Amino acid sequence: MPSLVVRPANHPVNTNVSIRGIGTFAYAIGVESSVAVTIDGAPVAFLARAINDLPDVAQIEVLRGPQSTLYGKAASAGLIKIMTTQPTDDLNIRANARVTGDHEFGESLSITGPLTDTLGFVFAGGYTHWDGNALNVINGKRVNGRNTLNSRAKLRWKASSQLTFTLSGNYLTGDTTAARPLIRLSPEARLRGDPELTRAVVLPGVAIGPDNHTVAYNSPSATRYHGGGALLRSELELGKISLLSLTNVDRFKLNDYFDYDDTAATKFTGISQEIGIFRSELFTQEFRLLSPDDAAFRYALGVYYADTGFDRPFYRGPGFALSRLHATAGSRQIAGFGQIDWQFVPDLTATAGARVQNERVHYTYDAQLTGKSYAGHDSDDAFTYHLGMNYQATRDLMLFASYATGYKGQSYDLSTGFDQARADSGPIRPERSRDKEIGIRSQWLDRRLTVNVTFFNTHYRDLQAQTIETFADGRFINRLANVGSLVTRGIEVEGVARPTGDLTLNGNASYLRANYLKFADAPCYPLQTSAGGCPDRTRRQDLSGERLPQAPTWRLNATADYAPAIGGNRRGVMQVTWEYQGAMTYAPRDPEVAQAAYQIVNCSLGMRDDHHRWEAVAFLDNVFDQRHYSSMVNVAGNFGLNVATAALLPRDFRRYGGIRVGLNF
Q1: How many CB atoms lie within 10 A of CB 59?
Q2: Is there a contact between 514 and 62 (Cβ–Cβ < 8 Å)?
Q3: Nearest residue to 43 via CA among 580, 445, 409
Q4: Which residues make beta-bridge pairs with 16?
Q5: Rounded to two decimals, what is the model's pTM?
Q6: Which of 174, 208, 350, 545 has fewest C-beta within 10 Å?
Q7: CA 485, CA 287: separation in Å to the nearest integer?
Q8: 240-287, pLDDT tens digit by residue?
């Protein structure tokens, strides 16, 4: 799905997911993603609790465009819906293992089956270790890696023919090591402008350039985290209708450290380290009344309650970019929603849905360097709706059109620099979206060819966006701001062809035009001059009409999967995938964080049982060793306002290969 992009960060909590060029990246706590995530129907507090090596995924759906009607306040750009393995009537065991040449190995195990005639269970667990693809020259250790242990257990009780309870629990623990190698640094650059802090002094042994994968960190740069949760799913059949209840609790804690100066500096003026703790608690309760799926008049009615809390002590220093704070944030939401699908004439179905909600947000903020404390709260009401029409022209051709609105609640900018002015201005305004879509879903050639086409046009007002405010002396702070308005429009094409029973071809394309319509008071980027559109007096620029960052015009992918019979109830496994991403920038107009277009080819070769009971595959990813970055950061402010660019390296920054094996019986 080319319009879906998942970008990791050096801090797992800041993992960014975007759909059609829109996502949320924010340092402030309590700011939810524009792309919501649910696991088994229950929302997660933030993306790091979902995009983390789940050992028992059964199905993933990506719903594009606003999904606020059924899935809540934070689905203004889309939803990732993850379903995990459910208890089965027969004993099933699934095991997988993976090992690579660059020191990654992972194992997962899932067991499901019955305990009695009315009691079923699932147990799933997985462990992943990877050294990382960067090297810290100070201690000789690999970094940018991770360790993750993830487990989930379920118990399903059929109390009667009408009543079923499913209780699930999960536990996650792990750690990561962080690195953002410098890929550009001016020869004149000095850390913090100090003549003594030259490249040779603070970056010994680091070969700066586009291929650099080394760092010189003399302070810890890592995270350690653990968390767990429970979900009770209750299903009651009331004749032809059913009642669903979802009760969800979740807690998470993460300790984080980062060598903020990106060097091995020992002189006080050049030392800055980040140390923090991130805690979250979530409780949600949802009730849904559901009609039969096969009725001509179908409906889903529900009520929803959520209570979320975050806690963030944070320190940065001691040499520069000083910060010491303790912030808390919370929200409480109550909502009622409903959606109706009515096939009022044969082959023509109308859809109407709506959601009404009230949300209250609150915060505390202790600015420990100034001795000032702040606290506040606010509330907001919202109404979102969805209208659509589907026409089943033939058995294999469906046309549709829809109009939907989305909403993501207000939030406080609880990051470094919070002061009386921010407190007086109140929360960042809610984010709202309006989406129009038309499309075709079709199958051809006796259903050997599937072609889906979607045209979309989505307007956003007050998008909540992370910005970096740079001062003339090189200091900078992160700010959460509202973008006046913007639009994303484009075409998505998805195709699957099965010319023979052994060969499957997939091809997908996303064409995107994403531009600011109104963003007149945006911060300038580091090193931006007056001639480049940044007045020296205000250090603000007008980005109206500019292209959005992290929104390439083209994203394409294609896969060829060939599984010929080779005798003895065995099949070969041969697969080649190709991915293309067009050029883009990670910050508006900034040439120092421009990502050139690139393409990645992956291939695999192996063998499997004809009934998928076992499989063994050798694979090679990034076959042609194409360099690219998952993010780029302009850190000129740390180097005396000289060119300095750091990058985060993706898993496939360099070519690597390995072996996958799986058992399923």
Answers
A1: 9
A2: no
A3: 409
A4: 7
A5: 0.91
A6: 545
A7: 35
A8: 999 999 999 999 999 999 999 999 999 999 999 999 999 999 999 999
